[in-house]
Design brief:
heterodimer; A: 452 residues; alpha+beta; TIM Barrel; 5-stranded parallel β-sheet; 16 helices; 35% helix; B: alpha+beta; 7-stranded antiparallel β-sheet; 19 helices; Nicotinamide phosphoribosyltransferase (chain A); glycosyltransferase (chain A); cytokine activity (chain A); biological rhythms (chain A); nucleus (chain A)
C-alpha cells in the first residue's frame, strides 16, 4: 500500500539504522484563514488498514510478483516483510502516539508520531506514510465543517439571540460530487426534491408537481426545488398565490423549505425573501430581525462555500433578515474542494537511531523555509499561557505530553467514542461571541504565528 | 474480476432525498429516462479561464457497473472476517474460489487473456481453500445487489434517518422477487476512452419495468461519481497535449512522452478507493505512476495485454537523505546512487540547499559516478521546493555548467543522457505550461525534464470543473411520452436537454447530440451510444488497451497544437 518508490527505501537508509521516528503536522501557512485544525480520522485508518495480522505469505508473494513487473526488476524487500510475518505474526511493529480525536489544535503542531518498535523494521515507519498522510482528508473536512459552524453560529447569535437549530443548519449535499464511495458522511435531513421530480410533470404543471409534494409529505418538513423554470415566478405565483393556503396550513414541524438552485446566491435569496415577505408577511424577533412565518423557510444548496456563506449571511443581516430563515446545503466545497495543501499536511522524519546513537534530523530547504520540518522526538503540551505548543529535540516532559499511544504492535490500544469526539470538537464560547474576546483571539493569533 | 464489498448496499448508496422521490413523480409514470453530460459553460468574458477543457475523456463507467450495479446470481462463499482488502494487489479470497473472470472473454477476443503465474497457482489451491471455507463456516452472500437482509437494513436506517417510514420497501422487494436483484435499467454509453466535446450526451439511463420508473434517478448519485475518473483523465490528457507540443517543438519527436507526467498523488487523495480510480484514469494517457492502487483497478475492471499498465523507478524521499544527518548529504547521495546502478534513480536534492547539492555534490564530488551511468539508467535530480519555474531553470543552468549539454537538431540544449531532472512540487496544468514555456525560452529541450504531479492530478478537481450533470429528459406517463427539461431563468448554462437522446457524427466529422428522439430518423446515421448494461448484466466491455487507443492524441490535434 505504499507509493512505488517506498518499496526501494529500505536500501537507501544509512547502514545500521535501528529506528526511524516520524511525525505528522498541518504546517503553518502565511495568510491562511484556517489557523486551527480538528484532529479526526486516525481511528478509522488504524482499524481499517493497520490493525491485526496484515501480512501473510500470499500477500508477500503477490507483492513480489507485482513489483517485479512494475519496476521491471527485483527491488521488493521480500525478506523484510517475511520477517514481520515470522517474528510478529504479521502484525506491524509500530507505535503511533496521537492527539485525542476531535481536539482542536493550532497549525504547526505535532498531531501524531510514528516509530518502529523493533530495530529490524526501521523501514516500516515511512512505508506507511502514504496511507497515514491520507489523514489530511478527514482532518480538512472536519476543520472546514467546523469553520462553517463558526460562521453560522456567529450570525445566528447576532440576528436571533440564540443558537437553536445550529446543528441542522448545514446539510451535506456532497454524495454525488465526491470521488468514490469510500468517504465520510454527516447526518439527518428532510425529504428533498430534485429537479427530475418536478420537471417530469412538464413545464405547465409545476404547480401540480408542488401540490403533490405537499400532499405526499404532509407531516415533517419538506424541501422543494423551485428554480426549474423561474424561481421568482414560482415563489410569487405558485407558492405565494395558487398554493398559498396549502402552505399556510403547515406547521413549524412540517414547514415548507423553498430551494433556489441557480443564479447568484445572495442576490437570489434577497429577492426570494422579498417576494415571500410580500406574500406571507413576516415578524420581528427579540433582537429586531425579520423572520418568515414558522411554516416557511429557505434552503440554499447551490454555490455554497465558506466565503459565500459569510457573504450571504452578511447581506441578509444588512437587509434586516435573521439567519433563522435559512438553511444551507453544501456539496463539493464541504467534501471535495479541498486538498492536502489546504492545511499543508505533511509527514516527516525527525529522529533516527544509527549504530545505537540517536540523532535529530530535519529538512530545511533554502528555497522554502515554510517547508522546514521539526527535529527530534516530539511532544505536545499546554504552556503557562494556556496555549498548545510542540516541544522538539526530546526535551518534553512525559507527564505534560498530550500525545497518547493509540496503536502498538498491531493493536489499537485507545478508542474514542463519537460522543467524546464531538465533545472535543464543539465550539467554544469565544468562537460564538467573537466580539467579546478580541484580546484572547489576538493572543492566540500571535501565538500561532510565532509573533511575540 | 469484480470485487464488491459484501457490505455494500445500493439502497443506502444514494442521496437521502432520493429515497422519497418515488412518491413525487406524476401518478401513472411508467418510465423515467435520464442522461449524463459535461455541460458547456458559456464563460463570462470578464473571467478568462486559462484552460478551456473543450473536450472530455469518457472513462470509469465500467468500474462502477462492475463494482456496484451488476447482478450476482450465486451466493459467493467469501471469507467474511478477513484483514483489510489490499485492493491494489491482484487477488482477493474471491479470486481463489472462482476461476478466470468470464467478463474478459468477449466474442471478438476469444480466449481470455492469460493470467500471471500466480493466477494459475490460485486455481490449483482452489479445492483446499473451498474445503477450508466450508469447514470454518465463513460464508456470506457477497455482492448480491438486493437481498432481504439489505432491504431490512435500509428500512431500519431510513426509519431512523427520516423519523418516518418513507422507504420504498415494496419497490425494492419487487426487484428482489421478480428479478432476483437484477436492476431493471438500461444504460447506453459512448465507448470508454472516447474524447467528446462538451455539451454532448455521454450516457443515458432508463427504467425497463413500468413498476421501477423510480430506479433511474435512484442510481444517479452513484453514476454521477463518474465525474471523477472523467475529470482526472481529461485534465491529464490536456497536460499531455501541452507536453507533446513543447516536446515536439524543442526536440522534433515525442519520445518518452508517456513518462513525462508521473502520478505522485497517492498520499494527497481522500481515500484508497479514490487513489485507485484516479490513478487508473491518469494511466489512460500516461505510463508512469507511483500510485500503485491504480494498477489493481485496471487489471480487475478493464484488463490489459501487458503484465502491468504502469511503471516506476527507485527514488529517494527526504527521510532517506536526512536520516544520514545534515553533514552527510553527500554520503546519502553516494550510497543511494550506488544501490541502483542499472536503472534510473531519482534523488530528491533540496533537503538543505538544492543549488549547493547540484553544484558541489552532484557537479563535483560525485560527478565521476554520474558520468559512468548509461542513458537507460540516468540520475534524475529532484528539486522539491521554491518557485517551480525559477528552480527548474536555475537547476538546469547549474547542471549545464558541470555536465556540458549538446545542441539537438532543433537547436535546443540537452544535458548528457546520464543526467536528467524531475520537478514534482507545485505542478498543475498552469505551472506545467509556465515551466515548459520558460524552458523553451531559455533554449532547454523538454527532453531534459519529467514532471510529477500529486494533488493537482488526482485531488484538486471537482464536479464543477467539467460541469458533470445528470438530468431527466423524458418520461412516460399515462402511456404518453413527454419530453421534459429544466431551464432556470437565472442561469441558461443549467438548461438541460429534451427527450430521448442519441449521439452522432456529422459528415464533417463533428459530434452532435440529437434530442427529442430525432436520432430515430436515419439521416445522421448510427447512434454512437452502445448498450453497456441491461437488466443487471454488463453486455459490453472495453479493455484498457481499447480505452487508451480511443483516448490517444490525434494527428489533427498535434497539428493544431503546433500552430
Amino acid at each position: 500500500m505504499g507509493c512505488s518508490t517506498m518499496i526501494t527505501h529500505y536500501k537507501q537508509y544509512p547502514p545500521n539504522v535501528s529506528k526511524i521516528y516520524s511525525y505528522f503536522e498541518c504546517r503553518h501557512k502565511k495568510g491562511s484563514q484556517l489557523n486551527e485544525v480538528v484532529f479526526f480520522g486516525l481511528q478509522y485508518l488504524l482499524k481499517k488498514y493497520l490493525a491485526g495480522p496484515v501480512i501473510t505469505e500470499e500477500k508477500i508473494q503477490e507483492a513480489k510478483l507485482f513489483y517485479q513487473m512494475h519496476f521491471k526488476q527485483a527491488v521488493f524487500d521480500e525478506e523484510g516483510w517475511r520477517k514481520v510475518l515470522e517474528k510478529h505474526d504479521g502484525r506491524l511493529p509500530i507505535r503511533i502516539k496521537a492527539v485525542p480525536e476531535g481536539r482542536i489544535i493550532p497549525r504547526g503542531n505535532v498531531l501524531f508520531t510514528v516509530e518502529n518498535t523493533d530495530p529490524n523494521f526501521y523501514w516500516l515507519t515511512n512505508y506507511i506514510e502514504t496511507m497515514l498522510v491520507q489523514m489530511w482528508y478527514p482532518i480538512t473536512v472536519a476543520t472546514i465543517s467546523r469553520e462553517f459552524k463558526k460562521i453560522l453560529a456567529k450570525h445566528m447569535k447576532a440576528t436571533s439571540g440564540s443558537l437553536e437549530g445550529l446543528d441542522l443548519k448545514l446539510h451535506d449535499f456532497g454524495y454525488r460530487g465526491v470521488s468514490s464511495q469510500e468517504h465520510y458522511k454527516t447526518e439527518s435531513i428532510t425529504p428533498l426534491l430534485s429537479c427530475s421530480t418536478i420537471i417530469s410533470w412538464g413545464r405547465s404543471r409545476e404547480k401540480e408537481a408542488f401540490e403533490r409534494v405537499l400532499d405526499q409529505f404532509s407531516s415533517g418538513p419538506v424541501s422543494v426545488v423551485s428554480d426549474s423554470y423561474d424561481i421568482f415566478n414560482a415563489c410569487k405565483h405558485i407558492w405565494g398565490d395558487k398554493l398559498k393556503e396549502r402552505v399556510m396550513e403547515r406547521s413549524q414541524d412540517s414547514c415548507l423549505v423553498i430551494r433556489p438552485d441557480s443564479g447568484d446566491p445572495a442576490e437570489t435569496l434577497i429577492e426570494v425573501l422579498k417576494i415571500l415577505e410580500e406574500c406571507f408577511g413576516c415578524s420581528l424577533n427579540s433582537v429586531g430581525y425579520k423572520v418568515l412565518p414558522s411554516y416557511l423557510r429557505i434552503i440554499q444548496g447551490d454555490g455554497i462555500d465558506l466565503n459565500s456563506v459569510e457573504e450571504i449571511l452578511e447581506k441578509l443581516s444588512d437587509e434586516g433578515w435573521s439567519a433563522e430563515n435559512i438553511f444551507f446545503g453544501c456539496g463539493s466545497a464541504l467534501l471535495q474542494k479541498l486538498n492536502r495543501d489546504t492545511l499543508s499536511c505533511a509527514f516527516k522524519c525527525s529522529y533516527v537511531e544509527t549504530n545505537g546513537k540517536g540523532m535529530d534530523v530535519y529538512k530545511q530547504p533554502v528555497t522554502d523555509l515554510s517547508k522546514m520540518s521539526k527535529r527530534g522526538q516530539l511532544s505536545l503540551r499546554r504552556n503557562s499561557d494556556g496555549f498548545l505548543e510542540t516541544i522538539e529535540r526530546g526535551a518534553g516532559k512525559p507527564e505534560e505530553d498530550l500525545l497518547v499511544t493509540v496503536f502498538e504492535n498491531g493493536m489499537v490500544v485507545k478508542d474514542y467514542s463519537l460522543e467524546e469526539i464531538r465533545k472535543n470538537a464543539r465550539l467554544r464560547d469565544e468562537e460564538v461571541n467573537p466580539t467579546l474576546h478580541n484580546h484572547d483571539q489576538e493572543l492566540l493569533h500571535n501565538h500561532i504565528n510565532g509573533i511575540y | 474480476m469484480e470485487h464488491r464489498d459484501a457490505d455494500f448496499n445500493i439502497m443506502l448508496a444514494t442521496d437521502s432525498y432520493k429515497v422519497t422521490h418515488y412518491k413525487q413523480y406524476p401518478p401513472n409514470t411508467s418510465k423515467v429516462y435520464s442522461y449524463f453530460e459535461c455541460r458547456e459553460k458559456r464563460t463570462d468574458p470578464t473571467k478568462s479561464r486559462k484552460v478551456k477543457y473543450d473536450k472530455t475523456v469518457f472513462y470509469g463507467l465500467q468500474y462502477i457497473l462492475y463494482k456496484y450495479l451488476k447482478a450476482r446470481d450465486h451466493d459467493m462463499p467469501v471469507m467474511r472476517h478477513w484483514p483489510p482488502p489490499w485492493e491494489h494487489f491482484i487477488f482477493s479470497w474471491e479470486h481463489f474460489i472462482h476461476p478466470t473472470p468470464t467478463h474478459r472473454r468477449s466474442p471478438q477476443q476469444g480466449q481470455s487473456s492469460a493470467g500471471s503465474a500466480a493466477e494459475q497457482n490460485s486455481t490449483a489451491r482452489l479445492p483446499l481453500l473451498k474445503i477450508h471455507c466450508i469447514a470454518q463456516g465463513h460464508f456470506s452472500r457477497a455482492g448480491k445487489v438486493v437481498t432481504p437482509e439489505k432491504i431490512q437494513e435500509a428500512k431500519e436506517v431510513y426509519r431512523e434517518h427520516f423519523q418516518d417510514d418513507v422507504f420504498n420497501e415494496k419497490g425494492w422487494t419487487y426487484i428482489l422477487e421478480k428479478y432476483n436483484g437484477h436492476l431493471p435499467i438500461e444504460i447506453k454509453a459512448v465507448p470508454e476512452g472516447s474524447v467528446i466535446p462538451r455539451g454532448n450526451v455521454l450516457f443515458t439511463v432508463e427504467s425497463t419495468d413500468p413498476e421501477c420508473y423510480w430506479l433511474t434517478n435512484w442510481v444517479e448519485t452513484i453514476l454521477v461519481q463518474i465525474w471523477y475518473p472523467i475529470t482526472v483523465a481529461t485534465n491529464s490528457r490536456e497536460q499531455k497535449k501541452i507536453l507533446a507540443k513543447y516536446l515536439l517543438e524543442t526536440s522534433g519527436n515525442l519520445e518518452k512522452l508517456e513518462y513525462k507526467l508521473h502520478d505522485f498523488g497517492y498520499r494527497g487523495v481522500s481515500s484508497q478507493e479514490t487513489a485507485g480510480i484516479g490513478a487508473s484514469a491518469h494511466l489512460v494517457n500516461f505510463k508512469g505512476t507511483d500510485t500503485v492502487a491504480g494498477i489493481g483497478v485496471i487489471k480487475k475492471y478493464y484488463g490489459t495485454k501487458d503484465p502491468v499498465p504502469g511503471f516506476s523507478v527507485p527514488a529517494a524521499e527526504h527521510s532517506t537523505i536526512t536520516a544520514w544527518g545534515k553533514d552527510h548529504e553527500k554520503d546519502a547521495f553516494e550510497h543511494i546512487i550506488k544501490q541502483f546502478p542499472s536503472v534510473p534513480v531519482s534523488i530528491v536534492s533540496d533537503s538543505y540547499d538544492i543549488y549547493n547539492a547540484c553544484e558541489k555534490i552532484w557537479g563535483e564530488d560525485l560527478r565521476g559516478l554520474i558520468e559512468k551511468r548509461s542513458a537507460d539508467a540516468p540520475l534524475v535530480v529532484r528539486p522539491d521546493s521554491g518557485n517551480p519555474l525559477d528552480t527548474v531553470l536555475k537547476v538546469l543552468e547549474i547542471l549545464g555548467k558541470k555536465f556540458i549539454p549538446v545542441e539537438n537538431s532543433k537547436g535546443f540544449r540537452v544535458l548528457p543522457p546520464y543526467i536528467r531532472v524531475i520537478q514534482g512540487d507545485g505542478v498543475d496544468i498552469n505551472t506545467l505550461q509556465e515551466i515548459v514555456e520558460g524552458m523553451k525560452e531559455h533554449k532547454w529541450s523538454i527532453e531534459n525534464i519529467a514532471f510529477g504531479s500529486g494533488g493537482a492530478l488526482l485531488q484538486k478537481l471537482t464536479r464543477d470543473l467539467l460541469n458533470c450533470s445528470f438530468k431527466c429528459s423524458y418520461v412516460v406517463t399515462n402511456g404518453l411520452g413527454v419530453n421534459v427539461f429544466k431551464d432556470p431563468v437565472a442561469d441558461p448554462n443549467k438548461r438541460s436537454k429534451k427527450g430521448r437522446l442519441s449521439l452522432h457524427r456529422t459528415q464533417s466529422g463533428d459530434f452532435v447530440t440529437l434530442e427529442e428522439g430525432k436520432g430515430d430518423l436515419e439521416e445522421y446515421g448510427v447512434d454512437l451510444l452502445h448498450t453497456v448494461f441491461q437488466n443487471g448484466n454488463i453486455v459490453k466491455t472495453y479493455t484498457f488497451d481499447e480505452v487508451r487507443d480511443n483516448a490517444k492524441l490525434k494527428e489533427s490535434e498535434l497539428e493544431e497544437l503546433l500552430h
